[in-house]
Structures are given as C-alpha cells and as structure tokens.
Amino acid sequence: MSFKAIPLRLLLPFGLLLAATQGAHAAPPAGRLLAAQCAQCHGTSGNGPGFDEVAGKSASELRKDLLEMKRRPVEGIMDRQARGYTDAQIKLIADYLAAHTSGSTN
Amino acid sequence: MHTFNRRRFLQAAGIASAAAALPRALGAATPARVVVVGGGFGGATVAKYLRLWGGGQVAVTLVEPNADHIACILSNLVLTGALSMDRISLGYNALKTNYGVAVIQARVTAINYGSGTGKGRVSLSNGRSLDYDHLVLSPGIDFIAPPDNPGAWDANVTPHAWQAGAQTLLLKKQLASMRDHDTFVMTVPKSPYRCPPGPYERACVVADYLKRKRLLFARVVVLDANAGIQAEPVAFGEAFNHIYKGMIEYIPDATVSSVISQTRSIITSAGSWSNVRVLNYIPNQRAAAIGPASSANRGWPLLNAQGFVPVDPLTYGVSGYPNIHVIGDACAVPATDGQAVPKSGHMANAEAKVCADAILRALNGQAPDTNIATSSACFSPITATTASWLSANFSYGNIYDAAGKVKGKGMQRVDLGEAPKISGDNYQDMFTWADGLFADSFI
Fold first, then answer.
1. Scanning every residue of chain B, which has its alpha carbon at the shortest distance from the alpha carbon of A27?
2. What is the pLDDT, as a whole number, of residue A13?
3. Is the pLDDT of residue B6 over 50?
4. Residue B137: which of B324, B338, B363, B334 has the closest Cα?
5. What is the mean predicted confidence (pLDDT) over B43-65?
6. Is A33 a member of any domain?
7. Cβ within 8 Å of A, B 360-389
8. Distance separating alpha carbons of residues A17 and B99, to the nearest angstrom
9. Does any domain span residue A48?
10. How confident is the model at residue B431, as a pLDDT?
11. H helix runs in B215-341, sequence order
12. Which residues of A touch B414 (CB under 8 A)?
C-alpha cells in the first residue's frame, strides 16, 4: 500500500483542467480558486485520490449537498468544512466543478 | 524610470494592491520566470498549480536541497513502526513529467530581491543562478535554541523529529529502547509552531506504543510552553484524562530555559527533569533562514517579532518587495488576534493556490481576487486504531484585535471545530486524507 503505487489517474482529467487555463489577459474562470480548496481531499480534478468524488456531478446536486452539510449537525469533517463558505461561495464552487470536471468513468 | 512610472500609473488606476506586483510587458512572448524555493507542501503545490493554470505563460523552477520530501504528516506513525518511511516519502518526478516544472537539487546561497524593480536573482550552491520575474519562498521552519546555555542543546542527541527524516528515525530508535519505569519527556513549543495538534498526537501514539509493549509503568511527560492544549482540546483532553490516565502527565506553562542533550536533562519554569530515557525537545520555531546565517534577518526582506514573514493575504506578497511571495509555515498571515492561521501542510497547499492565482493575474495586469478562502483539515491518531480530526476555515475580510475592534483586512477564521468523537472510522479516513493531500501537492 505504498503511496507511490497510486495510479496516475490524473492523465485524463489533467487535460480537462488545462482546458480551463486561460490565455493571456483573460481573468480565470469564476470559482476556480475557491473550488481549488476542495482538491486537497477530493483530488486535483475532483476524482481522487481522496474522499467522495466531486467530479461529474451537476451544479445543483453539489450545491444541495454542500448546503445540507453546512446546515445539519456536525458529524463528519465535511459538515465543518462546508460551514467555512458563504452560500454565494458554495454556488460559485458548485458551478465551477460542474463545468470543469467530469466523472472518472468517462 | 520606466518601471516606476508604470507602477505609479497602475496605482493611480487603482489596480495595484498593497504589496504591489509589477506586471511584465503585456503580451510578452517569452514565458514569465517563476522561481520557487523549498519543495514541501507549499512549494510543490505552487509550482504545480502555476503550470496547471498558467500553462506556457510561466516557466517554473523549483529549488530544493533534498531529493525527496519526507512529509511530517503521518510521521508520528513512522516513530511507532506502524508505517515505513517510504509511505511518507514524496518525490518530484510527477511535477517534472506531468507539469513541466524544472527541479534543481541545490541550496540557495544568496537572493537579490531586485531593489524594488520586481526582478531579481537567486544564487545556488551548485554555482548556477536563476533570474526571476516572481519569486516564491516556501522554506518551512528553523528552530530556536533554548535561552540558557544554548550550546548544550544538540538535536542529533535529543531529536525534535519536527522535520521528518533522519530525526524521525533517531527518535524511533530511542523510543524502541525504552523499558518499564522509563520516562519519555517531550515539549510543546510556544505558539505559533508547525502543526498545532502534532505534539499532543505524538504524546498519544507514544503512550499507546508503550502500552502495547506492556511497559505499563513507563511514563510520558508533556511540557507545554503554552497555557493549555493548542488544538483539539476535547479529544486530547479525553486522551490525557481518561485513555492514558496515569501514563501521560500534562504540564502547561512550562517555559524551557535550558536543555543539556548529553545527559538528557531539561530545565523549565514548571520543573526540571534529568537523565530521562528519551528527551524529545521540540524547540520554539521561526521562519527557516533563506540566506547565510551571517546575513541580516537571516536573508529575509523583513520579519515580525516572532521571526516569521508578514505577507499580504491576497497575494502572499511582502510589502515593499514587489514580486516576492512567501507561503507555508514561514509566513505570517494577518488574522484576528487569537485566531491565527495554522501552520500545516494542508494550509500551505491552500496558500500556494491563492499565491499561484495572484501571480498569474499579476502577469496579466489584473488585480488579485478578493473572494478567497483557505482551509486546514487534518486527522490525528489517538491510539493505534482510532483518530480524531480538526477543521479550520478562513475567509478574506475584516480582522479584529483582542478588544473586538477592526484592525484591518486579513484571513478571518470563519469556522473551527474538532471531531465529535474519537473513532476507528476516523483512523481509516486519516489515510484517505493524507493520500489526497500528498497527490494534490506532488502528483
């Protein structure tokens, strides 16, 4: 179970995130920096290694999940992490992830 | 001067931030040169994300003296033999092959900060030098010797094991030598220090190790320089008062005055211990030196009273030094009094992304984003099969002094909490968390 044995699942989604790279003079897509805070635990492209995949879900599904975690009593660590963002920030994150990631089954 | 006039124009236009970035000529054909010093979680992440988001707009060079980064994360489990060193060894090959980061194994010998021009040069131990358009410094921490008889402290005799690697293996060997009725004495540094829950976690896993070896009369003494437990007070309070009752002795307000490594002795304001079996003295900390020991400020443009580098929370820039950025444990982020941004690998990763985004915006002549958040999340083993967790979130906005008055803008802590209970599920989640963070930073 060496860390180095983790498959390089980035190869496909790497291209997807690169697609989000902007040319000179253009501002980065809205929500990209906020959504990057999900990557520590859900993978650079939202599909691991890490906890539940956030890639490939719709914006409304992600938003609903995050708002539910933010408002329910704290059990898991995501119930706390979701409390760290305003509802408007959660919308930006959900919209970005839905538009710029896709499920690893693709 | 040309650059001065351009800066004045940008300030007049309201574009430049407090720690101003001087943009290169817009539409420059050659990539901007970014040099990153230090290949821990902060340095690796900023190098990766600059290339991930910036593509061909930036040429990124990472300078790091070691061939691999040995993570402090999970290193307390290497001490007890639960994990191998290989499990926490992180290489730089993926940064090179997946992202095209140039990695140079060398030490920095001198930095020219550019005298306000925003362009400078880093000199290396291999004789090379690197010109930069932006410089990101992420060197981690150094240790501060005890005030009295500092020469009597030798970390190669009494290891801190607060930088993982040879120190971890030395402490592991010493721990393995413990017999019944022996004492393991350790210290908790004065805050701020790297990984607030780390020392308490270490006390727990050491006590658990001794219990499992049936050394039931061995003792762990925790000498805390602070007034109380600095992180996860409920979980560690439960551990010290119940799980390891009679085995761990927790002593707050213990300020260390001297350490005599040869006799494994320590003198503190809360008492003295001599000839203990293991002395795990974890010293107070400050930003790692970035230049020769003889240089002013240990090579830093500026330092705060605690020895860390004050930064702009939007760019991690240093006031008065355009295009110089400091991230990770070495930096001091403006925050509300008593609600400091913790020094952790997870937080260094978070800061690296904010810094990378700000650098790319600056290269395009754009102001830094102000809708930013950073976070830290971590899992702490309490026994060989259970763990707790800690979660902290920060958002850009007003920050406050102790009296509740606004003192400026910074990263305001908007949420903080620990696991409602110590559990086996948390122990399993700890490895998922670590693998995610390792990969997002290094792969």
1. B361
2. 40
3. no
4. B324
5. 98
6. yes
7. 360-361, 363-366, 369, 371-375, 377, 389
8. 12
9. yes
10. 98
11. 233-238
12. 83-84
Q: Is the pLDDT of residue B78 over 90?
A: yes
% of chain A residues with pLDDT over 90: 68
The CATH number for A62's domain is: 1.10.760.10
What is the per-residue DSSP string for chain A?
--GGGS--TTHHHHHHHHHTPPPTTPPPPTTHHHHGGGHHHH-TTSS-SSSS--TT--HHHHHHHHHHHHHSPP-SHHHHHGGGS-HHHHHHHHHHHHHH---TT-
pLDDT in tens, A19-74: 444 445 578 999 999 999 999 999 999 999 999 999 999 999 999 999 999 999 99
Does B95 contact chain A (CB < 8 Å)?
Answer: no
Q: Which residue of B has its CA nearest to A52?
A: B432
**A16, part of any domain:** no
Whole-number Å distance between alpha carbons of B260 and B405: 44
Q: B2-140+288-442 architecture in CATH?
A: 3-Layer(bba) Sandwich (3.50)
- The band of A102, judged by pLDDT with boundaries at 50, 70 and 90, is confident
Q: In this complex, how many residue pairs, one in chain A and one in chain B, have their CB atoms less than 8 Å apart?
A: 144
Distance from CA of B386 to the nearest CA of A (A): 15
Contact B280, B295 (CB under 8 A): no
Nearest to B377 among A8, A32, A77 (CB): A77
The whole-number pLDDT of residue B21 equals 57
Is residue A7's pLDDT more than 90? Answer: no
Asked if pLDDT for residue B66 goes beyond 80, the answer is yes
pLDDT in tens, B297-314: 999 999 999 999 999 999
* In a domain? residue A47: yes
pLDDT digits (tens, 9 = 90+) for B83-99: 999 999 999 999 999 99
User: What is the value of ipTM here, to two decimals?
Assistant: 0.91
CATH architecture of B143-285: 3-Layer(bba) Sandwich (3.50)
Q: Which residue has the tokens 């988001």?
A: B53
- pLDDT bucket at B25, cuts 50 / 70 / 90: low
B436 touches chain A (CB under 8 A): yes
B:29-58 residues touching chain A, CB 8 A cutoff = 48-49, 52-55, 57
Buried b (16+ CB within 10 A) or exposed e, B120-129: bebbbeeeee
How far is the C-alpha of B336 from the C-alpha of B66, rounded, in Å?
36
Domain count, chain A: 1
Q: Domain residue spans in chain B?
A: 2-140+288-442, 143-285
User: Would an 8 Å CB–CB cutoff place B395 in contact with chain A?
Assistant: yes
| Chain A residues with a Cβ under 8 Å from any Cβ in chain B | 1-4, 6, 8, 10, 14, 17-18, 20-21, 24-28, 32-34, 36-37, 39-44, 48-51, 74-75, 77, 80-81, 83-86, 89, 92
Which residue from B364, B394, B436 is facing A40, i.e. has the nearest CB? B436
Quick: pLDDT tens for B368-380: 999 999 999 999 9
Give the residue numbers spanning the domain of A88. Answer: 28-100
Amino acid at B367: A
